[in-house]
Amino acid sequence: HPLSPSLSPPPQDQFDTIERHTQWGLDLVDKYVKFVKERTEIEQAYAKQLRNLVKKHIPKRNTREDPESKFCQYQAFLQVVKELNDFAGQREVVAENLMTRVCVELAKYTQELKQERKSNLQEGRRAQQQLENSFKQLENVSPRFNFPSIAPSSASPSVDPKP
């Protein structure tokens, strides 16, 4: 006998959907970490190029000895070069912080999430398997416990007219 409607297995869990969704989330974090690493490399390269530009334009001799150093336009130019050097330093700090505070921390967190996800998925698969086994056992034993249907009886018990 098939299971009665009240004993039928529940609709399929959304286990596969959850598995895909969590994998998508982990893939997105991995993609973001890759993006930040690439940005870090760009920031580092940019800072290096800025430093090289500064080196080219900083006077090699002492500014007091340079006759052009007396002019305010030259002083302004040197100030711009020094500011650019400071800006290069800021780019280096940005790159370092991106690597240490974002990439490294996200990589650690992602590893923890992957381990937790793996554990939860294994536990979910075990629970699904136990559920399937329970329904199979229920199907196997239910014929033994099926009782014949009882017809509804009349409101008053029947009395035998003979004493």
UniProtKB/TrEMBL annotation:
Gene Ontology MF, one: lipid binding
Record field: compositional bias (Low complexity): 148-163
UniProt cross-references to Gene3D superfamilies, sorted A to Z: Arfaptin homology (AH) domain/BAR domain
Alphabetically ordered keywords of this record: Coiled coil, Lipid-binding
Pfam families: FCH (PF00611)
F-BAR domain: residues covered: 5-163
Name the record gives this protein: F-BAR domain-containing protein
Species: Sphenodon punctatus (Tuatara)
Lineage, uppermost ranks: Eukaryota, Metazoa, Chordata, Craniata, Vertebrata
